[in-house]
Amino acid sequence: MQNTEIKTTCSYCGVGCGIIVKNDSKNGVTVTGDKDHPVNRGMLCSKGMNLHYVVNDTSDRILYPEMRWSKSHPKERVSWDTALDRASAVFSSIIKKHGPDSVGFYISGQCLTEEYYLVNKLVKGFLKTNNIDTNSRLCMSSAVAGYKKTFGEDSVPIAYADIELADTFLITGANPAFCHPILFRRIEQHKEKNPKIKIIVVDPRRTDSAIAADLHLQILPGTDIVLYHAIGRRLIEKGYVDSDFVRNHTENYQAYKEMVMGSSYEKASKLCGVSVSDIHLAADIIGKAKGFISMWAMGLNQSAIGVDKNTALLNLSLITGQVGKPGSGPFSLTGQPNAMGGREVGGMANLLAVHKELSNPEHRKEVASFWGVDSISEKPGLTATEMFDALESGKMKAIWIICTNPMVSLPDARRVEKALANAKFVVVQDISHNADTAKFADLLLPAAGWLEKEGTMTNSERRISYLPKGINAPGEALSDVEILLNFAKKMKFSGFNFNNTEAIYKEYCLMTKGTNIDVSYLNYSRLKNEGTFQWPVPDYGHPGTPRLFADKKFFTPSQKAIFNIPTSIENTSELPSEKYPFILTTGRIRDQWHTMTKTGKVSRLMTHTPSPVLEINPIDAYKTKIKNGDIVVVSSKNGEVRVKAKVTDTIKEGVLFLPMHWGKQLDNDLNRTNNLTNTIVDPISKEPDFKYTIVAVKKY
Ligand code: SF4
User: Fold this and answer.
1) Which positions ≥6 away from 467 have C-beta within 8 Å?
2) What is this model's ipTM?
3) Domains in the chain and their CATH numbers?
4) Which of 60, 290, 581, 645 has its Cα between 20 and 30 A from that of 462?
């Protein structure tokens, strides 16, 4: 495929920027921002504008299937036929001997919607287990549960277009300047034109987002709910409640009011480490807003109380009636490009396609009937961390990992290594030999990457894009759809007679008919000819839906939004002790993506932060006799890392920060932050508590 030009979508974060890709024999693939795209209007961040380096450099690519006949044999090149014969034989024999729940699939928010749909149908409908989860469990599952509890369904109410209509932003537990750069650029541009616009940032670190803010609340980790309740109290006391909205469109306000009015500003200030005057100021800014948008990401979601943090924040939009109006609403910032698409097709262990619930017998029946199978198992599937627990204990025997690198990204990474080593059979389906998890594969399957296959994705604002195939995959790599269809054929499953990817999308769209995410009138042809659409798109002429709940009717049985009362206001993570006196919080840096299998091979992306660095406050550095640039050992109950220290007052006293990206290098795992992280998860969302691990630090 030479001298082509196509329009597609960036493969990194959930912002979902439009990209024009050119491919010619002289330059290979080159990328530019799509000026006509409604999301980025031609802008790209450092990651997006360097995507062509990732595509053009195929030196790390897995080119053909590799297999080992036993754990003591080295992997050898095999044909696709041999590879998938073995996969089907091993999976069939394990299921026969130990039952369907002895196998599991761990997939990714980078999978395209068709891939996500197909693998969920295969596993839940035909392998008869719900052991299929995604790395979105580490990212958005607390937000999903929060939306369900408040609005009745997993539903992001607003659009990026609301940014330019808002006058107040509360960015909490997120650093969009680094992690969602183009979205943040839109906020900055809006403020440049309208200087009176207010930005409040809540973060234990003075990030680039916080530097751009009018008010930075440098909160102590884990105290978000206390802060939101104090803000809620002030909003009520100062008469900022939208009484009409609360009376007519919400439930449980009285209980909420009683709870927050029982709180004390002084106590909140002490717990959060934020002054009473700043709490009041934040509430007054929010209360006076004509258009109030809250934005959040992993700082809320990756927590032992992540769901409660989400609902406590959503309550602030309810009190002020700032939902369903132009320029207002809560907005969860998705980390991955298609985490939202994955949720639509039921890509988690507790979900079914089209937002149906596994726990609902009617929903199970409907999905089973649509797929032409007898039933869907009622047993909840194992979530991401639970699957690796089950591999370690031997309850689960085989795992199929698609497009994700758990050996770096899951908490307590050394335990993940043990689990993979203990598994009877590990299939890794990926594009790169650089994925640390590939070393544990008994069967390594070469997958096509971005630009090398077609499909659809949904970004953070429910916007569905079609991604065309632009170039051929190297070697014998196949698209994930082709691999899964070939496996289904080997397993002799009916229901997989799809001639192409479009046919899979068609089946999914049909399934959405009559639901709240109805896209039954959407198809490849409309997406190719008319561009992107925000769901729902429930009829032929429908232009898509930028904003949900404009009619103030929510997806709950009463059609009212619900004020939720948290089970726990204070953090339930393990608190600092004499042995482990610091709180470690982890996150992303500007130019890296996940576990660096793609961005790590682009030299210009390595210059911003070439190696992991521990941020430590000057007071803590003084107490521990650590100087800027010292090599330090950070240790927790689970393991240790050895990195350089950066002494900086941008981080709150008592808190340390490490980036999450680095994995094992040269058989040394001391760069890997997730050696340290704890294994606590939120009791509802099962999302890990990455933002709060107690650690010790000392000079090496
Ligand atoms: Fe890609 Fe996100 Fe950057 Fe846009 S903001 S170019 S989607 S990484």
Assistant:
1) 8, 9, 112, 450, 451, 454, 455, 456, 457
2) 1.00
3) 4-56 (3.30.200.210), 66-135+337-497 (3.40.50.740), 141-333 (3.40.228.10), 582-699 (2.40.40.20)
4) 290
